[in-house]
Write a structure and sequence with these properties.
Structural class of chain A: mainly alpha
Number of domains of chain A: 2
Radius of gyration of chain A: 24 Å
Oligomer: heterodimer
Structural class of chain B: mainly alpha
CATH superfamily of the largest domain in chain A: MetI-like
Order of helices and strands of chain A: HEEHHHHHHHHHHHH
Distance between the termini of chain B: 31 Å
Order of helices and strands of chain B: HHHHHHHHHHHHHHHHH
CATH superfamily of the largest domain in chain B: MetI-like
Largest sheet of chain B: none
Shape of chain A: globular
CATH architecture of the largest domain in chain A: Orthogonal Bundle
Shape of chain B: flat
Largest interface: A-B, 107 and 104 residues
Strand content of chain A: under 5%
CATH architecture of the largest domain in chain B: Orthogonal Bundle
CATH topology of the largest domain in chain A: MetI-like fold
Number of strands of chain B: 0
Distance between the termini of chain A: 25 Å
């Protein structure tokens, strides 16, 4: 590959090609990321004006705020429950759709539809479907008053969020996992069948081990996804309520920054969230490294 | 291979049926409620059967809300996001793969790192940059002391201001600052045979000619996949258009739809109209998925690899 004629030797042409994208990325990615960390060490005035270096005071203030820890706790709980469901449900569907049965073609088509429905749109729809007075649960509520009310009961609101998140996450995870399943060579199944493994047994012994890389990957991508994309769902379904029960970190940052004009606090929380997400991403690369072990 | 797989096939069919119901159910309820009147919904709650008011509810959305102009905004943002991502990513991947440059690895790493921190996380400071895109330049001039030099020479320091908030460019540009496209094209270029390049060089093709006559026709499918993927992501964005546009006629349709739901005032909102809005807003992307599903699936698989 490194022979003389294998690459073009221009000086300014490649610069010209990379420059437009790089300019956008510097302006809208690296500057904001840098600024979030920079501002977390300053006390910023909301409408421009002076800023004052305060060292670690912002961090002290944020870390001693019980609301911050509550929002972080909710974020972790949501991340664990919603993203496990958002991987396990598509996994079961992918294993089912990988079989040659009547429904699998239809399912492969329909299960990618949510990709075209915005998180906020499905949020509006779920807010209606799970409305305690006119929605799906209204008849049950008439029989057992107070059984379901996301407007009052924080757990109900949380369940609605998880349901909407899993709905939105099905297409990507389903497609990735199905692609993984379909790349398993047929001979593997035949060999397993010769050894006496039936179709149920082969799910455990052949399919799951061989799509482990895909499974890990969807999991770690889903972790980041569940932390960030949940904003649209919270804003349209619960508005962070009832009583802050669904105020996750990404929503709290928005409220603090754009409604409370607490730029330093919001930046500090952004910086903390970024470090958290980067640690998750580090896990991702760790798992990507593991893929080599599964090469077939 | 003949074996008895009846039990697993039945289980798989049931599972798929439930999955399809889970996906289609909310969409069906949206459509059926959108076709009922407000009074019917108040009396009966969720509509299990479609009614006759769909057109009436939709025309209410079209005539009484900002959704039509907001859908135009969405089309502009989604389309320019798709197009700009395709073109800029193609060019940068081309430079990284086919030119002998020392900084190729660094550039690729810098571009790829954007995948790790989504826009929703860095929204606070991205907003600050968008409210004056020259602020980084001003800061550099201040920090390096160039500005005090300019001040002594010309009387006043340089301070440029340009806000891209409330513009289509401002709604789109931060979405384009993303590495998936470059990654996708780089992967594609790597799969092409090396002899292709050598043969083209031997025939005397320069970088521009190679780009237009050989790579571009070969990359058609990748272009289509990436375009579908980024169009959909542009259409379905929520947080950025929410803060990036403050006036109703600059907001995107998804934000406008969320604004249709009134703040809690005790009254049950006009859900049939809102659902009709949800149908309208989802019509364009869902049609796209129905027509171009092949490319969407391919795009999803490629962007993961």
């Amino acid at each position: 590959m490194k022979s003389e004629s294998s690459l073009f030797g221009h000086r300014w042409l490649p610069l010209l090609f990379v420059a437009p994208l790089m300019l956008l990325i510097v302006l809208f990615f690296y500057v904001p990321v840098f600024q979030a960390f920079y501002w977390s060490f300053f006390l910023e005035q909301p409408f421009g004006g002076t800023s004052e270096f305060v060292g670690l005071q912002n961090f002290q203030r944020v870390l001693s705020d019980p609301e911050f820890w509550a929002a972080t706790g909710r974020t972790v709980v949501f991340m664990l429950t919603a993203s496990s469901l958002a991987v396990v449900v598509p996994l079961m569907l992918a294993i089912a759709a990988d079989r040659k049965i009547g429904l699998s073609y239809t399912a492969r088509n329909i299960l990618v539809w949510p990709k075209g429905v915005a998180g906020a749109s499905i949020g509006v729809v779920f807010a209606f479907i799970f409305n305690p007075f006119v929605g799906l649960m209204a008849p049950l509520n008439a029989l057992f008053p107070g059984l379901w009310n996301p407007g009052i009961d924080g757990t109900d609101a949380f369940i609605t969020l998880v349901g909407a998140h899993v709905w939105s996450g099905i297409p990507f995870n389903f497609v990735i996992l199905l692609a993984g399943l379909r790349s398993i060579p047929h001979t593997m199944y035949q060999a397993a069948a010769m050894d006496g493994a039936g179709p149920w047994r082969r799910i455990i012994d052949v399919q799951l081990p061989l799509i482990m890389p895909h499974l890990f990957l969807t999991f770690v991508l889903e972790f980041t996804e569940s932390i960030t994309s949940v904003f649209a769902l919270i804003d349209t379904i619960t508005g962070g309520g009832p009583g802050g029960a669904t105020t996750l970190l990404v929503y709290k940052i928005y409220v603090d920054g754009f409604r409370g004009f607490d730029l330093s606090g919001a930046s500090t929380q952004t910086a903390i969230l970024m470090v958290f997400v980067l640690l998750l991403a580090a896990c991702q690369f760790f798992f990507l490294g593991r893929r080599i072990n599964y090469e077939r | 291979m003949v074996e008895n797989a009846r039990s697993i096939n039945i289980a798989a069919s049931i599972l798929l049926a439930i999955g399809i119901l889970y996906i289609v159910g909310p969409l069906y309820l949206t459509l059926s409620t959108a076709s009922q009147s407000y009074e019917y919904m108040l009396r009966n709650g969720l509509a299990s059967l479609p009614g006759t008011e769909l057109i009436a509810n939709m025309s209410k959305v079209i005539h009484e809300t900002n959704i039509p102009i907001q859908m135009l905004n969405s089309v502009i943002v989604a389309f320019s996001n798709g197009l700009a991502t395709c073109v800029l990513s193609f060019l940068s991947a081309y430079a990284i793969v086919y030119f002998r440059i020392r900084w190729a690895g660094v550039a690729f790493a810098l571009i790829l790192a954007t995948i790790m921190l989504p826009l929703d996380i860095r929204v606070i400071t991205t907003y600050q940059v968008a409210s004056n895109i020259f602020s980084p330049l001003n800061a550099i001039l201040d920090v390096t002391g160039l500005n005090s030099l300019i001040e002594t020479a010309f009387g006043s320091p340089v301070h440029l201001e340009l806000s891209i908030l409330d513009t289509h460019f401002g709604l789109t540009a931060p979405l384009v600052a993303h590495g998936t496209g470059t990654f996708l094209f780089r992967q594609f270029f790597m799969t092409l045979p090396k002899d292709l390049f050598k043969a083209a060089r031997m025939d005397g093709a320069g970088p521009i000619r190679f780009l237009f006559d050989i790579l571009l026709p070969l990359a058609r499918t990748s272009f289509a996949s990436l375009f579908v993927l980024t169009f959909l992501s542009g259409w379905t964005q929520y947080l950025w258009p929410l803060v990036g546009a403050s006036t109703p006629d600059m907001q995107t349709a998804v934000v406008g739809l969320a604004r249709l739901v009134p703040d809690a005032d005790g009254r049950v909102p006009d859900f049939p109209m809102i659902m009709a809005g949800a149908v309208l807003v989802s019509l364009v992307p869902l049609t796209m998925i129905a027509l171009l599903q092949r490319f969407l699936v391919q795009g999803l698989v490629l962007s993961e690899k």
